[in-house]
């Protein structure tokens, strides 16, 4: 029996079918955890890219850009995209403002962390964790003061 996710074991097809399309929690880190991302230019580029891609089936919800990593919630059209290739494309596209500043590559660590959210409660817990990252890192006194965060599209679970 063929299943919709050819790179995943068949025993998981029922799990993934339940969350179709899945909602992912994604984390991408800079190479050697260099602080490259907390700039207005990078933030603007991220928002513009993710706003543009929503019309193509790549939908970003909440996000937080930290100096050396980025967290975001992502839903992709599984009939058009594979998660790994999509993240590779996004990382390549997000390198543009870094290249424009003359920052030598590599910009990103290989790979990324992903987690499929299986409930509205899980989504809420992850978002609370992510949005408190700047506070835990000592970058702000109040979580709302971190300017490199937001919501591109409201993703309902």
Descriptive overview:
The protein is of the alpha+beta class. The protein is 34% helix and 20% strand. 27% of the residues are buried.
Number of helices: 6
* CATH architecture name: 2-Layer Sandwich
User: How many discrete structural domains?
Assistant: 1
Measured by DSSP, the beta-strand proportion falls in 15-25%
Uncertain residue ranges: 9-18
Q: Order of helices and strands, N to C?
A: HEHEEHHEHHE
Instruction: Characterize the main sheet.
Output: 5 strands, antiparallel
What is the typical, i.e. mean, pLDDT? 88
Helix % is 25-40%
Strand tally: 5
CATH topology: Alpha-Beta Plaits
Cα(first) to Cα(last) distance is: 29 Å
Shape verdict:
globular
Order of strands in the sheet with most strands: 4-1-3-2-5
C-alpha-based Rg, rounded: 16 Å
State the CATH superfamily name. Transposase IS200-like
- By CATH reckoning, the class would read Alpha Beta
Structural class by helix and strand composition: alpha+beta
Write the layout of secondary structure elements.
Blueprint: H1 13-18, E1 23-29, H2 40-53, E2 58-65, E3 69-76, H3 83-94, H4 96-100, E4 113-117, H5 120-131, H6 133-136, E5 149-151
Give short descriptive properties of this protein:
6 helices; alpha+beta; 5-stranded antiparallel β-sheet; Alpha-Beta Plaits; 157 residues
């Amino acid at each position: 029996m063929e299943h919709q996710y050819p790179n995943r074991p068949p025993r998981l097809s029922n799990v993934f079918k339940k969350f179709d399309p899945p909602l992912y929690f994604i984390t991408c880190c800079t190479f050697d955890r260099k602080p490259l991302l907390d700039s207005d230019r990078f933030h603007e580029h991220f928002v513009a890219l993710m706003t543009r891609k929503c019309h193509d089936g790549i939908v970003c919800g909440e996000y937080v850009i930290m100096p050396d990593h980025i967290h975001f919630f992502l839903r992709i059209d599984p009939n058009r995209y594979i998660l790994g290739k999509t993240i590779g494309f996004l990382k390549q596209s997000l390198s543009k403002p870094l290249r424009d500043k003359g920052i030598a590559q590599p910009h990103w660590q290989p790979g990324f962390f992903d987690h499929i959210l299986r409930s509205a409660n899980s989504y809420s817990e992850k978002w609370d964790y992510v949005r408190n990252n700047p506070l835990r890192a000592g970058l702000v006194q109040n979580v709302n003061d971190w300017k490199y965060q937001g919501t591109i599209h409201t993703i309902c679970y």
